[in-house]
Amino acid sequence: MKKLQGAHLRKPVTPDLLMTPSDQGDVDLDVDFAADRGNWTGKLDFLLSCIGYCVGLGNVWRFPYRAYTNGGGAFLVPYFLMLAICGIPLFFLELSLGQFSSLGPLAVWKISPLFKGAGAAMLLIVGLVAIYYNMIIAYVLFYLFASLTSDLPWEHCGNWWNTERCLEHRGPRDGNGVLPLNLSSTVSPSEEYWSRYVLHIQGSQGIGQPGEIRWNLCLCLLLAWVIVFLCILKGVKSSGKVVYFTATFPYLILLMLLVRGVTLPGAWKGIQFYLTPQFHHLLSSKVWIEAALQIFYSLGVGFGGLLTFASYNTFHQNIYRDTFIVTLGNAITSILAGFAIFSVLGYMSQELGVPVDQVAKAGPGLAFVVYPQAMTMLPLSPFWSFLFFFMLLTLGLDSQFAFLETIVTAVTDEFPYYLRPKKAVFSGLICVAMYLMGLILTTDGGMYWLVLLDDYSASFGLMVVVITTCLAVTRVYGIQRFCRDIHMMLGFKPGLYFRTCWLFLSPATLLALLVYSIVKYQPSEYGSYRFPAWAELLGILMGLLSCLMIPAGMLLAVLREEGSLWERLQQASRPAIDWGPSLEENRTGMYVATLAGSQSPKPLMVHMRKYGGITSFENTAIEVDREIAEEEEESMM
C-alpha cells in the first residue's frame, strides 16, 4: 500500500474522466479519424484550391454573355447584390460545416441524421457533373493538340469535313469595309471544324442513335481522366500542390489575352457593348434571376466541394477571411474575363463588318467556335490559340479535382477502416468507372447527351439540396447552436448580416430561383435539334432522383429509431452523440467526451474544475454550456 502511495506521489494520476482514448489502453474505438484523413500541407493550399474550384469555365463562357444580354454594366448591380444575399452567406455556411466537423458531405450529417439524404443527393449530382465536365476538358485537350501547328486546322475551308456553305469570311470588301455577302447563309470554318470534325455530329441521327465512338475523343477523355487521377492520387496533399500552378497560371494567361485584346482595332466596340449600362433591364425579374443563377453556379455551392476542402483545414483556420477573398476574387475574375472576351469579339465584328451581338455566343459555342475563329485573325494565331485552350484546361482541372475529391472523401469517411488505407486504389476505381460511363459522350451524338446532362444534372435538384441544407442547419440544428460552433472555431460569432441571410434571405432567394426554373421550364435543344419526349423525361427524372434521396434518407433515419413517429423524428433530427470537432483537443464545452468510449460531458466538467487545467477555450466552453443549460430550463418552463 505504501509503495502504491509513493508511486502516486512520484507520478500524478489523470482521472479516468479526463483520459483520452489513447491513454485508456488497447481499446478498439472509432476515434480520431482526422489524423488519418490528411490535411493541407501548406498555408495557401486551401485558399488556392477554393479559388481554382470556383473560378472555372463558367467565368469565361457564361458570365460575359449573361452580362451583355441582361443590361451590360447595369447587370453588376443585381450581380453584387445577389452575391451579398446568397453567395457569401451560403459559401461561409458550407465552409463552416466542413471545417468544424472535419467530415465529408455524407458523414457531416451527424449534425442531423434525418437529413443525410441531402449528402447522398450531393454525391449523385457531383458524380453526374464530373462525368460530362471531364468531357469538356477532353474537348479542350483536343483543341490544345490541334493548336500545335503552323496553320490552325479551322482557319481555312477546303478540308474533307467542310461543305459548300463554308466561307472564310475574308472576302473582298466594299468601300465601307463591309463584306458584300450574306453571312447568314454561310458557315465559318471554325464552326464546321467543331461540329463536323471534332464532334462528327452528322454521323448521329439524334440522342437515341448516338453512332460510333470517336476514338480521338475517346483517347482525349482517357488522358483527361489520367491527369485528374495523378493529381488526386494522394488526396489533398497532391492536389493541394498542383493548384499552386493550375489556380494561378490562368490569371497570367488571362492578363496576356486581355492586353492583346484591348490593343486590337475595334476592341473598344466590344467592350462598350459589354459594359454599356441599360438600367431599364433592372425592372425585369429575369435579370435578377440570371444574376442569382450566375452567383449560385459560379461559386459551386451545394456540390460538396467547399465542404470537402474545408474539412481538411486545421480547426481554427480563418475561413471568414477566406470566404471574402474567394467570393470577391471570383466576381472580379468574371468581370476581367468579360473584358478579355469582348475586346476580341469587338475586333472580330469589325473585321467581319457585322454587329457584336451576331458574333457573341455563350458556352461551348464561344469556347470552341467564336474565339478560335477570332484567333485565326491574329498574327501568331497558333500561339494565342494554345494559350487560350491551356487557360481553359487549367480552369477546368481545378473544378474537376474538387468533384473527384468530394466523392472520394465522402465515401472514405463513411467506411474509413476499409477505404482510407486504400484511398489511391479507390480513387483509381472511381476514375475508371466514370471514364466508362462517359464513353457515350465520345460518340457522334455525344454532344446531345452532354447537353442533357448539363441541363438537368445540377438544375432544380441542386437548389433543393442547398435549401434543405440551409434550413436543416439554421432551423433544425438551430441558428444559435451553429453560431456557437463557429464561435468555438473562429473566436467570434457571425453577425446579424449572416444570421439574417441564413434564416430568411438566402432560402427565400433560392426558393424564388427554384420556382422560376420550374415556371420558365424550356425543353432542351442543341442548335436546331429538339430533344424527343423520352429524353426530356429522362432528364427530369435525373433531377428528381437527387430530390427523392432526401425523403428516402429521412425514411431510413426514422426507421432506425424507436418509439412513436414523433419521437423517432425528434431523435433522428438531433445531432449524433459524436457530432463535433474530430480531434479531441478541439472538443471543448458541450463536445468534451462525446466521442465513442468517452464519459458524459457533465461529470467531466466537474472533474475539470476539481483537478484544474482549464484553458481559455474551456472557459469559453463552460460559458457556452451555461447558456445552453439556461435555454433548456427556459424551454421546459
From TrEMBL:
<dbReference type="GO" id="GO:0030163">
    <property type="term" value="P:protein catabolic process"/>
</dbReference>
<feature type="binding site">
    <location>
        <position position="55"/>
    </location>
    <ligand>
        <name>Na(+)</name>
    </ligand>
</feature>
<feature type="transmembrane region" description="Helical">
    <location>
        <begin position="46"/>
        <end position="64"/>
    </location>
</feature>
<feature type="binding site">
    <location>
        <position position="59"/>
    </location>
    <ligand>
        <name>Na(+)</name>
    </ligand>
</feature>
<feature type="binding site">
    <location>
        <position position="298"/>
    </location>
    <ligand>
        <name>Na(+)</name>
    </ligand>
</feature>
<feature type="binding site">
    <location>
        <position position="398"/>
    </location>
    <ligand>
        <name>Na(+)</name>
    </ligand>
</feature>
<dbReference type="Pfam" id="PF00209">
    <property type="entry name" value="SNF"/>
</dbReference>
<feature type="transmembrane region" description="Helical">
    <location>
        <begin position="288"/>
        <end position="312"/>
    </location>
</feature>
<feature type="transmembrane region" description="Helical">
    <location>
        <begin position="213"/>
        <end position="233"/>
    </location>
</feature>
<keyword id="KW-1015">Disulfide bond</keyword>
<dbReference type="GO" id="GO:0046872">
    <property type="term" value="F:metal ion binding"/>
</dbReference>
<dbReference type="GO" id="GO:0005298">
    <property type="term" value="F:proline:sodium symporter activity"/>
</dbReference>
<dbReference type="InterPro" id="IPR000175">
    <property type="entry name" value="Na/ntran_symport"/>
</dbReference>
<keyword id="KW-0812">Transmembrane</keyword>
<dbReference type="GO" id="GO:0015193">
    <property type="term" value="F:L-proline transmembrane transporter activity"/>
</dbReference>
<feature type="binding site">
    <location>
        <position position="395"/>
    </location>
    <ligand>
        <name>Na(+)</name>
    </ligand>
</feature>
<keyword id="KW-0915">Sodium</keyword>
<dbReference type="GO" id="GO:0089718">
    <property type="term" value="P:amino acid import across plasma membrane"/>
</dbReference>
<keyword id="KW-0813">Transport</keyword>
<keyword id="KW-1133">Transmembrane helix</keyword>
<keyword id="KW-0472">Membrane</keyword>
<dbReference type="GO" id="GO:0005886">
    <property type="term" value="C:plasma membrane"/>
</dbReference>
<feature type="transmembrane region" description="Helical">
    <location>
        <begin position="242"/>
        <end position="268"/>
    </location>
</feature>
<comment type="similarity">
    <text>Belongs to the sodium:neurotransmitter symporter (SNF) (TC 2.A.22) family.</text>
</comment>
<feature type="transmembrane region" description="Helical">
    <location>
        <begin position="456"/>
        <end position="476"/>
    </location>
</feature>
<dbReference type="GO" id="GO:0045202">
    <property type="term" value="C:synapse"/>
</dbReference>
<feature type="transmembrane region" description="Helical">
    <location>
        <begin position="425"/>
        <end position="450"/>
    </location>
</feature>
<feature type="transmembrane region" description="Helical">
    <location>
        <begin position="538"/>
        <end position="559"/>
    </location>
</feature>
<feature type="binding site">
    <location>
        <position position="52"/>
    </location>
    <ligand>
        <name>Na(+)</name>
    </ligand>
</feature>
<feature type="binding site">
    <location>
        <position position="399"/>
    </location>
    <ligand>
        <name>Na(+)</name>
    </ligand>
</feature>
<feature type="transmembrane region" description="Helical">
    <location>
        <begin position="324"/>
        <end position="348"/>
    </location>
</feature>
<keyword id="KW-0479">Metal-binding</keyword>
<feature type="transmembrane region" description="Helical">
    <location>
        <begin position="76"/>
        <end position="97"/>
    </location>
</feature>
<feature type="transmembrane region" description="Helical">
    <location>
        <begin position="496"/>
        <end position="518"/>
    </location>
</feature>
<feature type="disulfide bond">
    <location>
        <begin position="157"/>
        <end position="166"/>
    </location>
</feature>
<dbReference type="GO" id="GO:0015824">
    <property type="term" value="P:proline transport"/>
</dbReference>
<feature type="transmembrane region" description="Helical">
    <location>
        <begin position="118"/>
        <end position="145"/>
    </location>
</feature>
<protein>
    <recommendedName>
        <fullName>Transporter</fullName>
    </recommendedName>
</protein>
<keyword id="KW-0769">Symport</keyword>
<feature type="transmembrane region" description="Helical">
    <location>
        <begin position="383"/>
        <end position="404"/>
    </location>
</feature>
<feature type="binding site">
    <location>
        <position position="330"/>
    </location>
    <ligand>
        <name>Na(+)</name>
    </ligand>
</feature>
<dbReference type="InterPro" id="IPR037272">
    <property type="entry name" value="SNS_sf"/>
</dbReference>
